[in-house]
């Protein structure tokens, strides 16, 4: 069976952090390629799904570009894509089942975001026998396009299963012992389905206290916006609601959530998702950003032991921990630290008040149970 090849005429993504979709590219037909070639060729990687045409969309990138070494997988795919290929979803699912995947060597790094998860991903990537993907965004796209009433859960689970197997495709082509997938924080909406597809995978959850998390988010995304403006509040509420069930629950058109409230609901959903996984008996450990920053190498050594990752040399891991894992991206630490920005106090207050009002967490500084570092 053949896949359609498409020549990229233009790249039209509005912002680097926007969720991936077929519409990120203007493309035109450019022949065909045998589907097994996409399976075998490491320069093809799964980019997104097109549920309207029932196809999986792959990008081809130059062989000399190692996408895993760049800060964010989905951004690197978009920036370096030279060609597209599409596979019908039935064939996509069929071939996924033949991709070798060592499930006990599969590791999910869940997180609230802005908590060192990219650093952890890059520490894993420094181990030659580990394939570490920092934010393959097809999982975020699945969240953005799913039916929130759960009626398509069977289809969503199948897409998750096949997408993760295709993301781990390079592990079947080389001698990787582990595959690490660090999704965006919004993927907490489907983390239970990911674990349902791969119950023997290892799971770790990274988090950070709500106040410093919110300050980091505002410095990154809100420093040039008037958060008192009701239209700004409404825009952020509406933009984020398609990725978060809590925002959908609390949103109001007449009196939109404050930006601090819309943002903190993303943090809350991730935290609540971790607690729900524990309650369901999932074997998962938590890692606090404060512990990771205070003692990065000891934390990584405990994490690797938990995940049964055994580096032959620790020097590359130490080097990875000493670098800015997001250097060269829009989240570059040096550039952000140079910005003089103070989050409005009212935004923090409204966010903290919502945490307390909801009552599912003990507070903005909650220490999660089952910590990875309980032995230190």
Summarize the helices and strands and which ones pair or pack.
Elements: E1 2-11, E2 25-34, H1 35-40, E3 44-50, E4 55-60, H2 73-80, E5 83-88, H3 89-96, E6 106-111, H4 117-125, E7 130-134, H5 138-145, H6 153-167, H7 169-173, E8 178-182, H8 191-197, E9 202-207, H9 210-221, H10 230-241, H11 245-250, H12 259-279, E10 284-288, H13 289-294, H14 296-307, H15 315-322, H16 333-337, H17 345-358
Parallel strand pairs: 6-8, 6-9, 7-8, 9-10
Antiparallel strand pairs: 1-2, 1-5, 3-4, 4-5
Helix pairs in contact: 3-6, 4-15, 6-8, 9-12, 12-17
Summarize the structure.
The chain is of the alpha/beta class and 376 residues long. Helix content is 43%, strand content 18%.
Question: What does this molecule look like?
Answer:
By secondary structure, this protein is α/β, with parallel strands linked by helices. The radius of gyration is 20 Å and the shape is globular. 43% of the residues lie in helices and 18% in strands. A hairpin with a 4-residue loop joins β3 (44-50) and β4 (55-60). The model has no long low-confidence stretch (mean pLDDT 94). The strands form 2 sheets. The protein has a 5-stranded antiparallel beta sheet. It has 17 helices and 10 strands.
What's the helix count?
17
- Reading the helices and strands in chain order gives EEHEEHEHEHEHHHEHEHHHHEHHHHH
Structural class: alpha/beta
The pLDDT mean sits at 94
Question: Rough shape?
Answer: globular
Give the tally of β-strands. 10
Radius of gyration: 20 Å
Give the oligomer, counting copies of the same chain as homo and different chains as hetero.
Answer: single chain
Strand ordering within the main sheet: 2-1-5-4-3
Helical content band: 40-55%
């Amino acid at each position: 069976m053949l896949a359609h090849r498409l020549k990229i005429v233009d790249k039209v993504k509005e912002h680097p952090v926007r969720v991936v979709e077929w519409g990120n590219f203007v493309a035109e037909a450019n022949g065909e390629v045998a589907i097994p070639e996409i399976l075998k060729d490491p320069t093809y990687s799964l980019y997104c799904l097109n549920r309207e045409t029932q196809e999986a969309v792959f990008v081809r990138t130059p062989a000399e570009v190692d996408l895993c070494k760049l800060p964010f997988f989905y951004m690197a795919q978009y920036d370096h894509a030279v060609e597209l290929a599409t596979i019908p979803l039935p064939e996509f699912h069929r071939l996924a089942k033949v991709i070798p995947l060592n499930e006990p060597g599969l590791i999910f790094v869940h997180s609230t975001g802005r908590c060192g998860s990219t650093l952890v991903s890059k520490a894993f990537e420094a181990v030659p026998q580990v394939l570490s993907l920092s934010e393959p965004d097809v999982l975020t796209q699945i969240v953005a396009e799913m039916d929130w009433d759960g009626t398509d859960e069977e289809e969503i689970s199948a897409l998750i299963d096949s997408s993760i197997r295709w993301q781990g495709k390079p592990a079947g082509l080389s001698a990787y012992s582990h595959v690490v997938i660090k999704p965006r924080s919004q993927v907490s909406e489907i983390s239970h389905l990911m674990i349902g597809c791969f119950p023997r995978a290892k799971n770790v959850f990274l988090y950070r206290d709500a106040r410093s998390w919110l300050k980091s988010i505002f410095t990154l995304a809100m420093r040039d916006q008037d958060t008192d403006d009701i239209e700004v509040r409404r825009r952020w509420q509406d933009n984020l609601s398609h990725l978060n069930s809590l925002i959908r629950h609390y949103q109001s058109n007449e009196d939109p959530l404050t930006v601090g409230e819309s943002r903190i609901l993303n943090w809350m959903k991730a935290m609540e998702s971790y607690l729900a996984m524990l309650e369901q008996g999932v074997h998962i450990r938590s890692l606090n950003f404060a512990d990771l920053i205070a003692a990065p190498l000891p934390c990584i050594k405990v994490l690797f032991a938990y995940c049964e990752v055994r580096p032959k040399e620790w020097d590359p891991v130490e080097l990875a921990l000493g670098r800015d894992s997001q250097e060269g991206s829009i989240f570059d630490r040096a550039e952000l630290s140079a910005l003089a920005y103070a989050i409005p106090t009212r935004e923090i207050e409204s966010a903290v008040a919502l945490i307390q009002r909801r009552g599912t967490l003990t507070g903005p500084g909650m220490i999660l149970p089952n910590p990875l570092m309980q032995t230190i």
